[in-house]
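Researcher: We're teaching a course module on how sequence relates to structure. For the next exercise, students receive a sequence and then see the predicted structure as tokens, so they can try to spot secondary structure elements on their own. Here is the exercise chain.
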Amino acid sequence: MNSPIRPEKQWYPLAPSDDDADFIDLKKKWQAVWAVKWSIIALAILVTSLAALALSQVQPIYRASATIMVEAKGNQLVAFQQVYDSTGLLSEYIQTQIGLITSRDVAERVIQRLNLTQHPAFDPRQQPKPLIDIKPLINRTRLAIFGEDPDTIQDILTEEEIMDFAVRQFMERTTVSVEGKSQLIRISFDMTDRFTAALAANTIADSYIESQLEAQMDMSIKATTWMNSRLEELRGSLKEAENRLQDYREEEGLVDIDGVATISSNELAMIGDRMIDARRQRAEAESQYRQVQSMSSQGWERMASVPAVLGHPLIQQFKAEQARAQAKVDELSGRYGERFPAMQAARSDLNAATASLQSQVEQVVAGIERNYQLALANENSLRSSFNQNKEQIQDISGKEFQIRELTRDVESNRALYETFMTRLQETTATQDLNTTNARIVDQATPPSLPAAPNKKLLLTIAAALSLIAGVVIALISEILNNTFKSADDVEGQLNLPVLGIMPLMPKKHQKAIPHLFEKGEEHQFCEAVRTIRTGIMLADMTRAQKVLVVTSSVPGEGKSALATNLAFALSQLKTVLLIDADLRRPTIARNFDFPVGTPGLANLIAGTAKAQDCIQKVSGHLDMMTAGAVPPNPLELLASPRFAELLEKVKEHYDHIIIDSPPTQAVSDPILTSTLASSVIYVVKSESTSIPMAQRGVGQLLQSGASIVGVVLNQVDVKKAAKKGEYSGYIDHYGYSSGKA
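Model: And here is the predicted structure for the students to work with:
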């Protein structure tokens, strides 16, 4: 019995894909907001009006501002370092001055000068009482527990408490800020009285400058007192150091220790230089002496080869004479014999030269030994003299060190004493010339316009926030409203065609809805029923729509009204039988004023009445069968074979049989009746029927094999839908907007 307009295996409605779930239809969201634009505007007007009313009750607050310039270093009237210097980094210094301006000391100065403890804004005794006063309850509790008379209990504030309250209120109203990266500081004060605000701002600036002057004066006095006491200590220390120096000189008998120390040092240096030369000469003589000593046992010829001997000029001269004599002997020996006179003369000259060389070598060796002895004696003599002078110098150096230490002590004490004396004289001379590092640039004047509340800004914010809140509420309502709001929702969520939409009727027509098509009064309503009738007749041209079951998800969706009006519409063309199969909550007998006890479907199935008694003629081609007596077992009656036999019999006499069935989510009766029907019409109430509930109902019907011809979207607010741009095709085509049939 599945309809050929849908695939036979597709029993359940298609769920939206992930892409559709992620897609945000901005146009749809905008239409939802636009549909409630007047409500949003009304909310904005209401909130803005309430804000304006609240602001009109708020007392305006005026802000007066004075500007001072704070220099990182005060002007110096004299050329010496200040006693108190707190420059540091400029930004840190400015922040420090801001802290001083907002200090409690400055606040108390201003309060005392302006006598603000008597002002209603700063006097705790003149503050308005709280809305909920618990003091009487406390007094009664104390009376009950301690027996104290409430009349004797008085809340008397001390002067300290009053001042503390005034200071806290004053500091809350004071604002201090830096203008950009400059050294200008703006002092602002907020009050409802603009003249008092200006006076307070100027007084804060004056009090800050006075506090700085007093602080400098106090520090100058303290510095002078401290330096006087310190000067006495330094004078005593200097006198004591001078006495120690003089006593030491007298004790050691020193007159000019610097001159003595200088001469002795020079002598010691000269002796040291001479000793170094003597040590070098002794080393050289000792080296030569050791060389000749090592060769003394090997004869004079080996000693003659020693460098110290060989380098002597006479040795070289005698060596040269010996070499010439030897050369002559060698020359004559080749030509003459030993006895030749010339040869003997040459040998005699050679022997004489050798004897002279030997004698000279021995003399040089003896000279080397004497030089070594003299150098050694000279070195020992100089060392002895150096050690003696060294002991004297060390003794003098110790005395010199002690003298210099005592002298430095005297000089440092004298310098410190003179510095303090000079500083004390300068401080004493200039302590009445104290200057401040701040000056007033602009005096505060009474402001003409209030600083708070900014009514225009607050009203604009209130209007903007209310509009935003209205839009957010509309969007949230749209998101949370999980119902069918348009035909597209029905087709997209249920995958079923929409046969038509039924307009929402005014409340005055609610009771007459089953008779609207019969009377033909509401043209829009009647045209919608005709549209549904046409959709049913064209749904499946291959077979006749003999038995139609009208059902919905839950009660109250208008299925019975649709079944009745559809029966009247079909009866204009063919014969129709309307059966009230809602045996639990029947409506046809009540809507058409049938007599109580009129037999109907339940009686016919049970066999307690005949068909001609149960079928009531309403118009020329329309008959109706009421539910009859409400049975205790409606489902068993509908499941009996007699109900199916009844339908087969009436098919022979009527072209269309419309069955008003109960909702699918209330009972299982429509599941049973749908198996006996040609098609099922599913009714969905606009902006009321839950999408999951309708999906379950349609799924149950399709699973049981029912052929759902389509869905009717009932009770649509046509005007509201037109604002959203929905059903424009339906409205324009069927004349809903014009109100014509």
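Model: If you want an answer key for the exercise: The chain has 27 helices and twelve strands. The longest strand covers residues 62-70.
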